[in-house]
Amino acid sequence: MARMTLEDLVDQLRKAYGDALRAVVLYGSAAATDHVPERADYNVLVVTDALGMPQLRAVAATARAWGEAGHPPPLTLTTAEWRASADVFPMEYADLLERHRVLHGALPLDGIAVDLRDLRVEVEQQTLGKLLQLRSAIMATGWEPKRQLALLEASLGTFMTVFRAVLRLHGERPPADREALATAVGARAGFDAAPFVRVVRHARGQARLSPDAAADVLAGYLAGMERLAAHVNGFTHA
Q: What is the pTM assigned to this prediction?
C-alpha cells in the first residue's frame, strides 16, 4: 500500500462507496499530459452521494494508505456539496475547471464557475497560512538537515497551488511547468524564484539537493513566501 497508485485508489474507492460513488477526478498539474510525477502531486476530487460514518469507516484504510504514499488527502464532497461549494474552495475549483481528468464516473460541471472575489479571499488566507505553517515547520525540524530537506520536498506542491491562484488573480493562465510557474510568480511578486526552481528540479531528479544545502534553500523559501504574502495583501486590498 505504500506504493499506492491512482488505479489502486479508484478501485478501493469503488469498493468503499459502492453505488453512491459519482466521480473520482484528478486535477491540477498532475492531470496535464506532460506531467512528470513528483512527490505529493496527485490532487484528487471524490464526489459521492453519501458521506456518513459508515462510508468514512469503509474508506479510512484507503485514505491512510493514500497519505502514506505521499499524496494530499482527496477533496471529498457529497454531490450536493460539490454543486454548492465553488465559493468555498475557489482555488481548487479553478484548478479543476482548467485542467482535470475523470478517473471514474461523471462530474457535473454545468453552472459551476469561480468568482474572482471569492478567489481573492482564499488566496490571501492561504498565502499567509502557508507562510505561518512554513515558519512553524522550520522550527520543528530542530535544524536537522535531513528534516529540512524533507520539509522542502513536502511543501512544494502546496506552494505551487498558491502560485497558480496568484497568477489567476492577475488574469493569467498559469503554466503547467513548475519551473515556469515559479519564475512567473516571482517576477509578479518581486521575489527570487531560484530556491523554488531548485526544489522543483530536485523533485524531478534532475539536480538533487544535499541535506547540507537545505537550510539555504529554506531561507529562500521563507523570503519568497514573505514577499508573496505582502504582494497578495497589497493586491487584494488595492
A: 0.86
